[in-house]
Structures are given as structure tokens and as C-alpha cells.
Amino acid sequence: MEATTIRGAVIGADLGGTKLMAGLFDGTDQLVARERVEVGGLDQDQLVEALADMVASLTARSTEPVLGAGFGLPTTIDQRTGIAVQAANLPIADLPVRDILRERTGIEIFLDNDANVAALAEQRRGAGAGVTDDLIMVTLGTGFGGGIVAGGRIVAGAIGAGAELGHMSIDHDGLPCVSPNCPGIGCIETYAGGMAMMREAAKLIEREPQGALAAAVAAGAPADAETLVRLTREGDTAATAVITEMAERLGTAFVNFVNIFNPGLIVVGGGFSPSLDLLLPIARKVVEERALRPGNTYVRIVPAEFGPDAGMVGAALMARDGLRRGVGIG
């Protein structure tokens, strides 16, 4: 049976720690206008104002009715109430975003975690397009984010607060989570990501005060993942060991994803994208050796195809899906 088309424009918005990016998508889901607003330093009320103003601005630029807006937020979401429960890097806590924005804008509002909507964009329009309906996306940057799409739909649990992939524990007796709002121990975010690399860089400098990393930092380079990756490419064995260990930890996370979800693709994006040629071959090897058959060889682990627009596009797709379901269309 052919799905009914919901005519009219939708807005997709991606709220990050420092910026809000949003786009207007026409009735054929083509991007026709975009806007960006810096939000660093804004308090909770000011963030809500920025969201509402963005919707109003894009609506004014539309030549057709705007039926709904989707928002990818860097928070846990309670879909029962439309509340953004908690954010790691923004002053958002227990905020009834859906109700506030419905009242302010007069249109339907749809919410989800920013990594979830980015995963939807990758499945529909990126690496998974025409390839698989079952995909896991990992955003590897300062931290470790992720989203799950199964059967072509976002999977976020009973009330919408799931798919927090970075907070899967890979070490019961490990380090406390680096996220200030997570009470977990041994979370993968603590072992793979920018914050983890800064910790490992500091340890390496302490172990090898005459080593290449210590010399680079003394010359003005930051003690971070970028410097470790550069030294690895230059052949430094100590930096290579750190990067290799991170890649193996990443592979351990992927083993769990494969065994639990049996995805067709694991797509990796985020700030570490320029170094995926170093990380993914090692992670793939771990999956092949440790994940259960046949998923260990069926899954493909590939770089993400979307850049910074993933959250904005995915949020618009989510809004379109929500409008369809609202009129009885799956």
C-alpha cells in the first residue's frame, strides 16, 4: 500500500553546545533555507527563545504551510511528556520543550536526542541509503554518542531515553564516567573519545618526559587526540600504542552492538572522522575475532557520509515521520 504524502514544509533543527543549526524542507523534503545561531553562554530561557525564534524565522521564509518541526537535542528525552530531561553541555534540565514550543509556534513539535536523529539521516540519506534499514551510528568526538535505527525507525526505548551508547559499561571495575551527569563506571565514553585521549596523553607525558609527545607539547602543541594522531602518522611508537588501544576499546563496543542488535552497518562520524583510517581497521579486526557469527562478518563498519548537517536533516525526517504517524500512517 502506498504511503500517503504529507504535503507542506517541515523544519529540522540541531541544537549543539555552541550553535543551533536549522533548515526548512519543502513538501518534497528538499532543503530550501537554512539558518545558524550561536548559542554558547545562553541560559535555559534564552535557549528556548532561540529555538522559537528560529522556527518563526524559517516559517516566514516558507512558500507553503509549515506543518511541524523536529529538534535534535543533546539531552535525554522523556517522550511521554516531551521533556528534555538532562544535558551534558547545556543548561537544560527537566524542560517541557514540546509543550512550550507548540504553544509558541502553533505547529507540531517532535523531539529526540541529537545522535538519534543523526543516525536516521545516515540510514535514509547517507551511508545506509538503499543498503540497510538497521544501522547503528557512533559519533566519536569529545565524547562518545550514538543512535540506533531498526526497521527504518529510531529506537530509543520504552520512553525515549535509551540508545545512550556512550554509557555502556565495558569495565565493571573501571574508571568513573567522564560525563558529569553519568553515575556509571567503566563507560565506553571514558575510554574512547577526545576526553579519554587527553587523559592518555597526560599519562604518556608523565611516563615518557623525553618522548615525542612531551617534546611536541613543549613546542606548543596541545596534549590531545589530534597531536597523538599526528605523531602516530609520523611513526612514533608510544603514540601509536595509545591510538591502537583506543581503537581496540572502540572495537569492544562494536562487538556488543553486533551481538545485541545485529546491525547491517555501524557508521562512525564526529570529530575523529579524519583519523578513522587508523581506528576502523583495528576495530573491525576486534569485531571479526570477538563478535558472534554470523553477525561478525555480516556487519560493515564504515565512515559516516553526512557532515554537520546530519542532525538537521535527521530532525526534519523525524518530523515528517511523526506527521505521517499522526494521521495513521506508519
Task: Please write the CATH class name of the largest domain.
Answer: Alpha Beta
**Unreliable runs, pLDDT <50, ≥5 residues?**
none
Fraction of residues in helix: 40-55%
Any idea what the CATH architecture of the largest domain is? Answer: 2-Layer Sandwich
Rounded to the nearest angstrom, the distance between the terminal CA atoms is 11 Å
Helix and strand run: EEEHEEEEHEHEEEHHHHHEHHEH
How many DSSP helices? 11
Proportion of strand residues: 15-25%
Strand order of the largest sheet: 3-2-1-4-8
Radius of gyration, taken over Cα atoms and rounded to an integer in Å:
21 Å
Number of domains: 2
Q: Which class do the helix and strand fractions yield?
A: alpha/beta
Write down how many β-strands occur, each being a DSSP E stretch of 2 or more residues: 13
Largest sheet: 5 strands, mixed
Please, what is the average pLDDT? 92
Overall 3D form = globular
- CATH topology term of the largest domain: Nucleotidyltransferase, domain 5
The CATH superfamily of the largest domain turns out to be: ATPase, nucleotide binding domain
Protein model, in words:
The chain has 330 residues and is an alpha/beta fold. The protein has helices at 44-60, 97-105, 114-125, 188-191, 194-207, 212-218, 225-233, 237-261, 276-290, 295-298, 310-326, and strands spanning 9-15, 19-25, 31-38, 66-73, 75-78, 83-87, 93-95, 108-113, 135-140, 144-150, 153-154, 265-269, 300-303. The chain folds into two domains: 9-120 and 308-326, ATPase, nucleotide binding domain (Nucleotidyltransferase, domain 5, 2-Layer Sandwich), CATH 3.30.420; 127-303, ATPase, nucleotide binding domain (Nucleotidyltransferase, domain 5, 2-Layer Sandwich). It has eleven helices and 13 strands. The longest helix is centred in the C-terminal third of the chain and has 25 residues, at 237-261. The radius of gyration is 21 Å and the shape is globular.
